[in-house]
Design goal:
The structure is a single chain. This protein is of the alpha/beta class and 273 residues long. It has one domain. Helix content is 44%, strand content 8%. The chain contains nine helices and seven strands. Strand 4 and strand 5 form a beta hairpin. The radius of gyration is 17 Å and the shape is globular. About 16% of the residues have low confidence. Bound molecules: zinc ion (ZN).
Amino acid sequence: MRLDDVNAGDIEVRRGGGSKAAIGGGLGLGGLLLLLVINMIAGGGGNASDIGQVLNGLQQGDGVSVEGETVRGDTLEGQELFAGKMMTLLGAYWGDEAKAMDIKFVEPGFVVFDSPTQTGGCGVGQPEAGPFYCPGDQKIYIDFGFYSQLESQLGFDGDFAMAYVIAHEYGHHIQNLLGVMDRRGGGNAQSVRVELQADCFAGAWASSAKADGRLEAGDFDEAIRAANAVGDDAISGGRAGRDTFTHGSSAEREKWFRQGFDSGDPSSCRTGA
Ligand SMILES: [Zn+2]
């Protein structure tokens, strides 16, 4: 992905809040995976997902980081620099789209953390939960250390895989602005519709990145591989039943990312969410 000309936005960094709290049994990597999370509803209400409930059940205490420091974009390096640049691109894209959607646009925050951290309305965020968006404080959370583990375990890699992940979480922020995240009820089926729409929103942004000449050879395939890797069927090794899906199958996730990419139009992301 070509980003040399992009100025990185500021991000919030929270380091070393303390030891990593164990999060009780029954949640193997499969359940936690992902990514992408977590249909956590603002306020930690009754519609939180399994992971959300776990997070909300944890007590805030020693070792939980709360406030981070804001790090200026022009001082960022590595993955944080990449994230800061992604936030700039996504902010520009969605700022324009929000006008067409007739919604008031505010940019989400972006928090890098490396140990349990207090969110504003989504309980204590765990690195092991994978990247997530919290509607309550309108922030995207990511632990790059754990993300790197995910990359190797899921078998996806490349800068555009991470671009897909960040764009997906940003898609949840747009859904929050649209009121999609507030729709209660619907259980797992609604969760899947919300997640697939976030994939489609990520694809719509990716289309704009392509139009701007930012995609390099292989980038699109990196996103497609990542979307497949985080399908509920892929994560469960095909053992999970459809009614347990919270994010959609690999085929569905690819399909909706492609829908956004091919149309370049978020209004085409009609997943029923
Ligand atoms: Zn998601």
